[in-house]
Amino acid sequence: MADSKFNRQFFIHLMIPVVVGFIIWFFPWRPEEVPVEGWQMLAIFIATIVAIILKPLPMGAVALIGLTVTILVGPLSTETALDAFSGTSVWLIVLAFFLSKGIIKTGLGHRIAYNLIERFGKKTIGLVYAMMGVNIVVGPAIPSSTARTGGVMLPIVQGLADITSGA
């Protein structure tokens, strides 16, 4: 019984973004100022965001499906669609999040959090200063604030939160 409920929920969560995309794609009242390709990109983009929110598949898979649909249906050429991946900052952020996953899976974030609590945890403000210090030390190595926050600081702060809440 639970298996059929899961399949039904998966199917619904998979179909809602498709329906939303089709509704926007074929919406008859497209503003004249918006080119057809722009309207099609809007439909794919909103459908992708809805799928990310509903999570029928992992976010990476949903993003790749959105990229594939964009290339196959034709609002963008393959070269234009893949051009965003040529930037080094995108790869820096992706690699930082891979690093974050490794820090979380190995428990390094918790070990660092334990050390910070041991050395600076007499008062809460001490932990705040310690986290600021970590951010300053890591800053020159990872210049992107998104990559630094999500890739290094998040696992440490998550470890602090887990330890102090007793989880």
Topology:
Blueprint lengths: L1 H24 L10 H19 L4 H15 L4 H5 L5 H19 L1 H13 L3 H15 L6 H21 L2
Helix pairs in contact: 1-2, 2-3, 5-8, 6-8, 7-8
Q: How far apart, in Å, are the first and last alpha carbons?
A: 32 Å
Work out the oligomeric state of the chains in this entry. single chain
> What's the shape?
elongated
> How would you spell out the order of helices and strands?
HHHHHHHH
Which structural category do the helix and sheet elements fall into? mainly alpha
Q: Mean pLDDT, rounded to whole units?
A: 88
In percent, how much strand structure appears in the residues? under 5%
Tally of strands: 0
Spans of 5+ residues with little confidence (pLDDT < 50)?
none
As a percent range, the share of helical residues equals over 70%
Radius of gyration: 22 Å
Protein model, in words:
This protein is mainly alpha-helical and 167 residues long. It contains eight helices and no strands.
Describe what is shown at a glance.
The chain is mainly alpha-helical and about 170 residues long.
Notable characteristics:
single chain, mainly alpha, 167 residues
